[in-house]
Amino acid sequence: GFVATLFGRIRRIPELRARQRQTRLLGERLAVNMVIQGTAADIIKVAMVNCRAALRNAGLETRMVLQIHDELLFEAPEAEVEEASKVVCREMAGAFEMDPPLEVDVASGANWLEAK
Predict the structure, then answer these.
(1) What digits encode the pLDDT tens for the residues 27-45?
(2) Are 18 and 42 in contact (CB under 8 A)?
(3) What are the residues facing 72 on neighbouring strands?
(4) CA neighbor of 54 nearest in space, from 80, 83, 85, 88
(5) Short-list 17, 16, 43, 18, CA closest to 31
(6) Domains plus CATH for the chain?
(7) Percent of the chain with pLDDT over 70
């Protein structure tokens, strides 16, 4: 068998056809997790591409530094923080339309600890 993310990315899961019950149960867990975690991974990738393009189109020097699960870390000149935050929030929230809509929290600080 196989499952697909909401973006259509497919993962084959041969464990779903196993004769052993434990292996089939493993396949079921893999299938459920793939839809959830795979879709989340697809969304963050779309958000990353969209954020980079939108920041560049806005003429901002802000740059993406790191992706951690469902978070993106940016480095920005102090003068750009407010505008870059708005751009990033808009692009991340708009990466995938769903109901309820995606929520995005933005924080800033001199370092990652202060921004958390």
Answers:
(1) 999 999 999 999 999 999 9
(2) no
(3) 67
(4) 88
(5) 16
(6) 2-115 (3.30.70.370)
(7) 100
Please report, for residues 4, 38, 39, 101, the alpha-carbon distance to residue 8 in angstroms, rounded to integers and kept in the order given. Answer: 5, 10, 9, 20
Say which residue the tokens 């697809």 belong to: 42
Cα–Cα distance measured from residue 42 to residue 91, given in angstroms and rounded to the nearest whole number: 14
Please check the confidence at residue 107 and state whether its pLDDT lies above 90. Answer: yes
**What's the whole-model pTM score?**
0.88
In degrees and rounded to multiples of 5, residue 3 shows phi and psi of -135, 165
**The token pair that represents 71 in the structure block:** 């978070």
DSSP-assigned letters across all residues of the chain: -EEE-TT--EEE-GGGG-SSHHHHHHHHHHHHHHHHHHHHHHHHHHHHHHHHHHHHHTT---EEEEEETTEEEEE--GGGHHHHHHHHHHHHHTSS--SSPPP------SSHHHH-
Q: Distance between CA atoms of 56 and 92, rounded to whole angstroms?
A: 15
